[in-house]
Amino acid sequence: MGYLKSKSPSRIVVRGPNFVGDSVLALPFYQSLRSHFTDSSITLIATPASAELSKSFECFDAIWSLPDRSSAEVWAMAQKVKMSDFSLSISLPSSVSAAMLFFLARVPTRVGWAETLAAPFYTDVLHWKGRASGAHKSDLYLELLELVVVRGTLPKIPAAPIARPSADSDYLVFAPTASIELREWPHSIECISLLRKKYPQFRIKVLGTGGEERWAAVLGALADDKVENHIGKTTLAEAVQICQSARAVVSMDSGMAHLSGTLAQAPTVVVFGPGDPAYIAPRGPSIYPVRRQGLLCSPCEKAVCQAPYGYQVCLKDLSPAPVVEALEKILG
User: Fold this and answer.
1) What's the whole-model pTM score?
2) 112-118 long-range contacts, Cβ below 8 Å, gap at least 24?
3) What is the second-level CATH architecture of the domain 2-145?
4) pLDDT per position as a tens digit, 9-59
5) How do the domains of the chain map onto residue ranges?
6) Three-state DSSP state, 120
7) CA torsion, points 204, 208, 210, 216, in degrees to nearest 10?
8) Which of 191, 248, 309, 330 could be disulfide-bonded to 313 (CB atoms 3.0-4.6 Å)?
9) How far apart are CA 21 and CA 19, in angstroms?
């Protein structure tokens, strides 16, 4: 692969992460790629939600949406890539389907992670260190880019700063949903009720994706016209704008936390269950992680709970009190 360190590939294709939150964590990677290969055409392939969000990053010449990761869709996308004459591909997901896509497309130089089943389909690989490395996930993405440039020259470009709203904003944001159900906090409604009592002057805009009917029922039961249900009613770009103007945001460990904390740069309280803040917390300027302390199994980063204490204890035993305390630090 050494030739890539002396000349820029004319056309680059990147397979982006599958989850919205990981797409935000990949932003420094995207910005560094764009900064280093200024004369190259760069195309992103991403899941529909991540593709929509990535339009705002201004790093790509084209963005292609991959509807799902079925064999038929991967094959169809591979044929599209093959016809587009890319000379370099980079896969951010550590999955076999991501590796197979560019192998089937016969991209000459294919960079990715050396997972057991995926490694044979790449020309150049790094081992995915994961949470055990002690590094933040966004920094691990950047390490992958060092395979194609001179090591040590990569700029770590932060997200562009966004002007914060004036202090007279009259609402908070609460984001109770998560794409992994295990990361949804069972005490969200209780916390919303406490916040309404403590801060009666503020409306609460509830944001999220998925489970619209379920959340409509439980939020409707509050019978509070200052609790506004926006779940499933906004685009990701609109959600960022809403968070940008909020006094503060409370979010689960989810994509919404990254939209709020990193892209909107809003003060964001993030409720963590199995996730590890040191590994996947948003990288914005005002992040307040809250998690249950003292559990030997937490953090675990698992999608299925295997705790010896009982199902989802890391969130069930986390009361609203520390979340309210974190908001007190923000709101004064």
Assistant:
1) 0.88
2) 112/144, 113/144, 118/94
3) 3-Layer(aba) Sandwich (3.40)
4) 899 999 999 999 999 999 999 998 998 888 999 999 999 999 999 999 999
5) 2-145, 171-331
6) helix
7) 10
8) 309
9) 6
User: With DSSP H G I counted as helix, E B as strand and the rest as coil, what are the percentages for the chain, rounded to 5?
Assistant: 40, 15, 45
Fold match between domain 2-145 and domain 171-331: yes
Distance of alpha carbon 96 from alpha carbon 74, whole angstroms: 11
CA distances in angstroms from 33 to 27, 43, 126, listed in the order given:
10, 11, 17
Mean pLDDT over all residues of the chain? 89
Angle at 136 between CA 97 and CA 120, to 5 degrees: 30
Domain 171-331 has CATH 3.40.50.2000: yes
Question: Could you tell me which residues are beta bridge partners of residue 14?
Answer: 44, 90
Distance CA 174, CA 256 (A): 10
Residue keyed to tokens 């006094």: 247
Q: Output the pLDDT for position 4.
A: 52
Distance of CA 78 to CAs 13, 107, 110, 240, 270, Å?
Answer: 11, 10, 13, 32, 38
Q: Give the model confidence (pLDDT) of 274-286 as tens digits.
A: 999 999 999 989 9
Q: What is the pLDDT of residue 7?
A: 61
**In the Cβ-directed half-sphere of 285, how many Cα atoms lie within 13 Å?**
12
- Rounded Cα gap, residues 198 and 321, in angstroms: 12
pLDDT bucket at 3, cuts 50 / 70 / 90: very low
* Interval 140-172: pLDDT, tens: 999 888 888 754 444 444 444 444 554 578 999
Tokens of 106: 């016969």
